[in-house]
Amino acid sequence: MIPITYLRLTCLSKMASTAFYSTLTKRTMAYKSAISLETLYPNSSLKLTTPSFTPDPKEKFSGFIPMEKLVITYSASSGPGGQNVNKVHTKVDLRFKLSEADWLHPDIKEKLLELHGKKLSKEGYLIIRSDTTRSQQLNLADCLQKLRNMIRDAAVTKREPAPETQERIRQRHLKAARLRVAQKREESHHRELRRPPTVVDL
Predict the structure, then answer these.
(1) What is the 3-state secondary structure (H, E, C) of 30-62?
(2) Cross-strand partners of 74
(3) Is 90 exposed, middle or buried (0-12, 13-18, 19+ CB in 10 A)?
(4) Between 20 and 30 A from 90 (CA), which of 27, 52, 157, 179?
(5) What is the overall mean pLDDT for the chain?
């Protein structure tokens, strides 16, 4: 027969453990980080939206690329990666028709056609691909960065140097050419001196 004190002790220990775990659970559920979204943005509905962007008309290219104007497709990436390569489509193919890109400045479109005209497809699409990583989003970001670099390179206008600067450059080139010819003549003369005498010389 089990003593009554033993039963009392068992019941008390179970009640204490249940109260401890319930208190711990309440504390865990009630805890909120100081950098939680509700703390940082108390009046926000926490809905993620893309903000509207109005480009500056004074700038040829502000860095903004409208995603709805691009044709983006995904495919299986090549290279090592095991069977996961055949399952996940991480390769990004970004293209847009350069002649119909109304979001680009006409000067930039003309320069892009001059610099990358050979890369255009038969339909007039400028194609940019990326499969450097195994992440679809990172490859998309890489394509967009390549496109931004191409546009920024095309947006740079080279200034013509002043006539005085052109004359200085021409004088430097002439001086370098004369120095090069003088050095060749001196080296040729030293080679002639190192040659052994021939029968004709004797």
Answers:
(1) HCCCCCCHHHHCCCCCCCCCCCCCCCCCCCCCC
(2) 92
(3) buried
(4) 52
(5) 79
Please tell me the predicted confidence (pLDDT) of residue 50: 58
| 174 in Cβ contact with 130 (< 8 Å) | no
State the average pLDDT over residues 168-179. 95
Tokens standing for 198? 């021939």
Closest by CA position to 91, among listed 69, 109, 73: 73
Residue 33 has pLDDT above 60, yes or no: yes
| Amino acid making up residue 188 | S
